[in-house]
Write a structure and sequence with these properties.
Elements (H helix, E strand, L loop, with lengths): L2 H9 L9 H13 E5 L5 E7 L2 H15 L4 E6 L6 E7 L5 H7 L21 H15 E3 L8 E5 L2 H12 L6 E5 L2 E6 L2 H11 L2 H51 L7 H12 L5 H7 L6 H21 L1
Antiparallel strand pairs: 1-2, 2-4, 3-4, 5-6, 6-8, 7-8
Length: 312
C-alpha cells in the first residue's frame, strides 16, 4: 500500500468532532470526485469514483445517514493497474437536489457553486473535515522517505483558492498551480505537510512521516560528514604528495648540513607519516608544534625546492 493510500485509509476512519463535520467531508468528496449529470428537466444523478475501499464505504455511509439517499455500487477492476475501482452512483430521487444544495454543489437557482459554502466550514473542526474530504477525493502525498510532495487536484481556480484559504486559517501555506485544465493545490515543505496531516486527523501518518524525516536528517548529516572527511583526507593526501616531492628535490640539491635542523625534523616527520595532516605532524614533533609552525616549515621546504629547480 502506498503512503497516500495509508493516509486516506486513516483519514476515512477519523471520527467527527461535531454533528456537521461529516457533512463537510461528504461535501468535499462529492464536489471534488463527483460527476453531476443532468438527465432531464430538474433530474440529476451523481457518480463518485474512488480506488480506496474505506473511502467508498465512507461515502455510501454518509449519503445514507445524512441525506437518506439510495446508492448503487459497482466494483470495476483496472486492466492496466489490476486494482479495483469503486463507482458509487446516486440515481435521481427525491431529496437529491436538496442534498446538493445543502452540500454547496448547486444553489437555489440550480447553478453550480464555484467556491465553498461558508456555513459548511464555519467551525475549525468543519474546516479540517472539508480538507480531509478534499484529500480523500484527489489527494496525493509522496513517500516521506523520498522528496516531500503533497497535492490536491481540483477542477476550478475558485475551489483551489478556497482550499488555500482554509489551510491559511491554520497557518498552513499552500500554493496553486494550473495543470492543463485542472488546478493543483500543493505543499512542498515537510513541516507544512505534517501540519496538514495533524490538522485533518491523520496523526499516525504524521508520526510515521516525522520518523522518516528524522531518519532522513540523520542520514543526510552522516553523509555530509563522511563526504567532508573524505574531501579533507583527499586534500591532505594531495598536499602530502606535493610536500614529499619538494622534500626529494631539496635532498637531491642540498647537503644535509645545509638544511636547517627545524626543516630536517619536518622532513623526518613527513617521511615517517606520509598520510598525516599538518596538525598531526605538529603533535608528533618533540616538543609539539602548532599547525602554523609546521605550515611555515612546509613553505620553507617548498621555497628551497623551487629555488633548486630554478637553478638546475
Amino acid at each position: 500500500m502506498s503512503f497516500t493510500a495509508e493516509v486516506k485509509d486513516e483519514l476515512a476512519r477519523v471520527p467527527p468532532v461535531c454533528s456537521h463535520c461529516q457533512k463537510a467531508v461528504l461535501a468535499a468528496l462529492v464536489r471534488i470526485e463527483g460527476t453531476l449529470f443532468l438527465s432531464g428537466q430538474g433530474r440529476y444523478r451523481v457518480e463518485i469514483a474512488t480506488d480506496v475501499p474505506s473511502v467508498a464505504r465512507l461515502i455510501i455511509k454518509l449519503l445514507h445517514e445524512i441525506y437518506e439517499l439510495k446508492t448503487d455500487l459497482t466494483v470495476r477492476r483496472s486492466v492496466l493497474h489490476k486494482t479495483p475501482n469503486y463507482l458509487i452512483e446516486i440515481p435521481n430521487q427525491p431529496g437529491l437536489f436538496e442534498a446538493l444544495c445543502d452540500m454547496g454543489i448547486l444553489d437555489e437557482n440550480r447553478q453550480l457553486v464555484s467556491g465553498i459554502k461558508e456555513d459548511i466550514v464555519a467551525k475549525d473542526c468543519c474546516s479540517a473535515a472539508y480538507l480531509r474530504g478534499a484529500f480523500l477525493g484527489s489527494g496525493f502525498v509522496s513517500d516521506p522517505r523520498g522528496d516531500f510532495h503533497f497535492e490536491v487536484t481540483v477542477e476550478s481556480k475558485e475551489l483551489a483558492d478556497a482550499l488555500v484559504s482554509l489551510m491559511e486559517r491554520k497557518d498552513i501555506t499552500a500554493r496553486v498551480m494550473q495543470r492543463r485544465s485542472s488546478y493543483m493545490v500543493y505543499l512542498k515543505s515537510g513541516s507544512a505537510i505534517l501540519e496538514f496531516l495533524a490538522f485533518t486527523g491523520a496523526h499516525q501518518s504524521a508520526l510515521a512521516m516525522e520518523n522518516a524525516r528524522v531518519i532522513k536528517s540523520v542520514r543526510n548529516e552522516v553523509n555530509r560528514q563522511t563526504n567532508a572527511e573524505m574531501a579533507n583526507q583527499a586534500k591532505a593526501v594531495n598536499a602530502s604528495m606535493d610536500q614529499i616531492f619538494a622534500i626529494r628535490t631539496v635532498l637531491n640539491s642540498y647537503a644535509v648540513d645545509e638544511i636547517p635542523p627545524a626543516l630536517q625534523e619536518f622532513i623526518r616527520l613527513r617521511v615517517a607519516h606520509p598520510d598525516a595532516t599538518l596538525k598531526e605532524l605538529g603533535e608528533f614533533a618533540n616538543p609539539p608544534l602548532s599547525k602554523s609552525a609546521v605550515y611555515h616549515r612546509v613553505r620553507r621546504i617548498e621555497q628551497m625546492a623551487q629555488e633548486a629547480l630554478s637553478n638546475s
